[in-house]
Design goal:
This protein is α/β, with parallel strands linked by helices and 203 residues long. The protein has two domains: 58 residues, no CATH class; 112 residues, no CATH class. It contains three helices and ten strands, in the order H-H-H-E-E-E-E-E-E-E-E-E-E. A five-stranded parallel β-sheet has the order 1-3-5-9-7, with no helix packed on it. It has a five-stranded parallel β-sheet with strand order 2-4-6-10-8, with no helix packed on it.
């Protein structure tokens, strides 16, 4: 079997992190990018571009290239406290249209959503939520709403319905693990449908 698609497992002697395992370097890169985004060192477009390149990286050198120009004290990075939600509250609305929210846009403690005769997709696969509860409150009228979550994310849903449907994926994780994030979905829908799907990042 060709090893063309197998990531390089450690950095070479010329790298800034010689001998560092690819997985550990990937974790370090993710932390640095998120902190620089939180501190407004990277804007939305720059952050999304580097995260996309991080997912395609095949070597430690590829990962190093993504953070080499960032003003971050790398040796102390792992000692920093865990990231919190980027925002406390936010509102997302769609009227007679279609909208999709994904990635760090959804790293908010409380999101209030209103959809009227619209299609809305929330994709949580490419965001790392902090431990504790992240809440989504849905208000939907004659709308279709899809919420996509990764397999490891615990989800609690309590959505009131009138002439409406809530469909939960049979693989949805509902058991809470101490110290892990929980997505709580609340709200009310009228003549609408909510689908909660479980998918891997690249599905």
């Amino acid at each position: 079997m060709s090893d063309q698609n197998v990531p390089e497992r450690s950095g070479g002697p010329a790298g800034r992190f010689p001998g560092l395992h690819f997985v550990k370097m990937n974790e370090l890169t993710e932390v640095i990018l998120k902190e620089c985004y939180t501190q407004d060192i990277l804007n939305d477009a720059e952050y999304e571009d580097r995260v996309s390149r991080m997912h395609r990286a095949r070597s430690v050198a590829d990962l190093e290239a993504l953070i080499e120009d960032l003003p971050v004290n790398l040796p102390d990075c792992k000692k920093r406290p865990p990231l919190l939600h980027h925002r406390r509250t936010q509102n997302i609305s769609v009227f007679l249209g279609e909208k999709k929210a994904a990635g760090e846009r959804l790293n908010c403690k409380y999101t209030d959503i209103v959809a009227v005769m619209g299609d809305l997709t929330l994709d949580f696969r490419d965001v790392t939520l902090p431990p504790g509860v992240t809440t989504i409150k849905l208000t939907g009228v004659m709308s279709d709403m899809k919420i996509i979550v990764p397999p490891e994310l615990t989800v609690e849903s309590d959505i009131a319905q009138i002439m409406a449907t809530v469909k939960e994926d049979r693989f949805l994780k509902t058991r809470q693990d101490p110290g892990k994030p929980v997505l709580k979905i609340l709200g009310f829908i009228l003549m609408s449908e909510v689908k909660i799907k479980v998918k891997e990042l690249f599905e």
